[in-house]
# Entry
Amino acid sequence: MEFDERFSTEAACLAYLAAVRWPNGFVCPRCAGVEVWRKARGLMLCRACGLETSATAGTIFHKTRKPLRVWFQAMWSVTSQKYGANALGLQRTLGLGSYETAWTWLHKLRRTMIRPGRDRLSGAIEIDETYVGGSEAGVYGRETANKALVVVAAEVRGRATGRIRLRRVPDASTSSLRPFIVEVIEPGAEAITDGWRGYSGLPDLGYRHTIHNIKRSGRKAHEELPHVHRVASLLKRWLLGTHQGAVSHKHLDYYLDEFTFRFNRRASTHRGLLFFRLVESAVALQPTTHRELVAGAARATATTRARSNGS
# Structure
């Protein structure tokens, strides 16, 4: 009810978006001028350079044909539901004309869930890989024919799990695992892994490396590395429950971003703050079309396959 009252009109949504984008007042994206003439339909004209712009220009809402209020309803739906929304459910909830529109909107929003320059994980971090996809016959160890390989890093907070990071990688080689570790884990942190050779050399990168040899311990992997295995189990359950497992590998990265966003904010009781964070990221992200989303995912998949094949 509070959401409906706050954003009952298109003007209210536009004013909120402008306040989030320019919290200290309008700043021209071209010349950084602060003086503006306000025109009809929310347009603004920079008095210094004459650039005509708006609060939606250059954001994921750029040139949208749908009312901003419908976008806000979609964002509220995504942040207020514990397990998120799938495209079919969003289409029905908002009365969108096509499944493709709902699918595109959700992927655009998923891209906003990962903030560039975010803090790296610290303290003690468990690291391991998991496979996403159905069972495969005749495939053993870290081999895979059709499944996607996802590396998981999870902060250890006693028995609890702190923040996480996920990434799809072409294989479990050192050349695939090291860039992920360097990007998401703070130097000096403790990296806790199994005895896989792909994690060798971490002390040379400035990490304290603790190895849990699964075979020698006589224990199961989920007992030696409980945090990453719990995260992997929840990821697969989420993909199967919310999305009925209908997630293609070329779009998996978007879903990993959403799962990470939700997991790291699972204890938050302020849904309004999550909505604000999503809007804040949405105005900072460059616009992307449906075609670009599909093409970008296809390129990422092709690169992953090429690396996996050694090309």
Q: What stands out?
A: The longest strand covers residues 148-157. The chain has two domains: 2-111, 124-240. The CA atoms of residues 150 and 168 lie 4 Å apart.
